Amino acid sequence: MPTVALDLLGGDRAPDVVADAVALLQDDPEAPDLLLVGPVDHAVELLRERGIDPRGFVVEPATGAVGMDEDPLTVLRQNPEVSVSVAARLVARGRAQAWVSVGHTGAAVAAAVLELGRIPGMARPALSVVVPSLAGPVVLLDAGAAPDATPDLLRQFAVAGHTYAQVLGIADPGVGLLTIGSEEGKGDRLRRSAHELFREVLPPAGIRYVGPVEGHDLGLGMAASVVVADGFTGNVLLKGLEGAVQWAATRMGSAYGDPEPAWRVVTQTATSDFAGGMLLGVSGVTVVGHGAGTAEEICACVRLAARVCDMGLVSRTARAFSTEVR
Amino acid sequence: MPTVALDLLGGDRAPDVVADAVALLQDDPEAPDLLLVGPVDHAVELLRERGIDPRGFVVEPATGAVGMDEDPLTVLRQNPEVSVSVAARLVARGRAQAWVSVGHTGAAVAAAVLELGRIPGMARPALSVVVPSLAGPVVLLDAGAAPDATPDLLRQFAVAGHTYAQVLGIADPGVGLLTIGSEEGKGDRLRRSAHELFREVLPPAGIRYVGPVEGHDLGLGMAASVVVADGFTGNVLLKGLEGAVQWAATRMGSAYGDPEPAWRVVTQTATSDFAGGMLLGVSGVTVVGHGAGTAEEICACVRLAARVCDMGLVSRTARAFSTEVR
Question: Which of A36, A107, B52, B195 has the CB geometry, 3.0–4.6 Å to B47, for a possible disulfide?
Answer without folding.
Answer: B52
